[in-house]
Amino acid sequence: MGAIFALARSHRLRLAELVFALAAATVLGCGSAVADETGGDPAAGEQDLLSDLPATFEGELPCADCPGIFYHLDLFDDRVFFLRTTFDGRGAGAVVDTIGSWVVAGDDSRLALFGDTEAPVFFRVLDDGNLRKLDVEGRDIESSLNYDLKRRNEPDAIEPRLKMRGTYRYMADAAVFTECLSGRRFAVAMEADNIALERAYLRARREPGEALMISLQGRITERPAMEGDAMVLTVVPEHFIGVWPGETCGARMVAVELENTYWKLTRLGDEPVFLGDQQREPHMVLRSEDGRVAGFGGCNQMTGRYSVGGTTIAFSDIAASMMACSEGAETERAFSAALVNARSWRLIGEHLDLFDGNGDLVARFEARNLD
Questions:
Q1: Could you read off the pLDDT of 39-63 as tens digits, one per residue?
Q2: Which end of the chain is more exposed for a tag (fewer CB within 10 A), N or C?
Q3: Which residue in 336, 360, 363, 367 sits closest to 268, CA to CA?
């Protein structure tokens, strides 16, 4: 994705800093960066560039392998966005909903949407208040085709339907879900697959009101508030997927490097990784200087070799010391098998996923800052 995104990953830049770096790269050349005149505070320019929120923007943009992509973008004043892209002529699966966080980089007028992809989606805020789609590195697209989204006279937010991750807590007959990518808190509707969600949470929690990571397929819609006559945005859990006690959302709007990062193991396939009170956490580090993986498997020190090419990855010569352990040996065997079976990888924020040759998740990791 270019030197700027590599720079962001290697230095764990927050998204606002990444956009500033992109602005500098346009003038000074890729790899250069300068400080923003506002002192690095993106909010200094947001009030002028995007006023009177919430707002809805719509437009049909070009598509490489379909007649067009219709964009519906909702921006909210708490820096949350809802985005629906509809691919013309694709039939089933043509509609994709995304939610996340947005930021504008000072006076540079570039809007960055940080959702469920590794790289942000960029738009330029035009003088007339409309938006223009930019390329994957935040640069203007040289084309006679339309890349503009027009602001509607009145906001008309979608009801996103998508897979979500976030922290869930249940107490006093009320549940709250804090979605990871947007940071927004939602009430949870007591309908659809809520019973399965509630039961799994109650089994996994260690104390009342504990916040635990969950994943679900659901819809965000308005429902009456528990008190008063107001309508509030609420998550309807249409399909509960799982509860993951060892995971967190991680920091929003950061980029992490695949190599030379401490990766804590949090999931093996569809099973969370549980640790005993005195048990060390399984982890790995991919060392770029010698192409070796080193870490702890759950019982013994672990080592081996790895190679990366694009989104593909392969591990070999995985070995461990032979210490006998009272706990962690089963996790270690599954961890080693996951590495051997891994064929591809994906980074979103501070989370690394490894997939086998069928595209199934074999392991999930979370970056830890050891500074």
A1: 344 444 444 567 789 999 999 999 9
A2: C
A3: 363
Tokens 């989204």 locate to: 149
What angle separates helix 3-11 from helix 15-28, to the nearest 10 degrees?
140
Show the tokens assigned to 19.
């956009």
| CA dist., res. 348 & res. 120, Å (int) | 11
Two tokens at 195?
């019973």
Task: Check if the beta carbon of residue 91 is closer than 8 Å to that of residue 73.
Answer: no
pTM of the model: 0.80
- Top-confidence residue, 310 or 43: 310
Measured distance CA(292)–CA(315) in Å, rounded: 9
Give the count of beta carbons closer than 10 Å to the beta carbon of residue 357: 9
Residues forming a β-bridge with 114: 101
List 261's β-bridge partners, or say none: none
**Token couple for 107:** 């006076």
Q: Using 50, 70 and 90 to split pLDDT, how confident is the model at 254?
A: confident
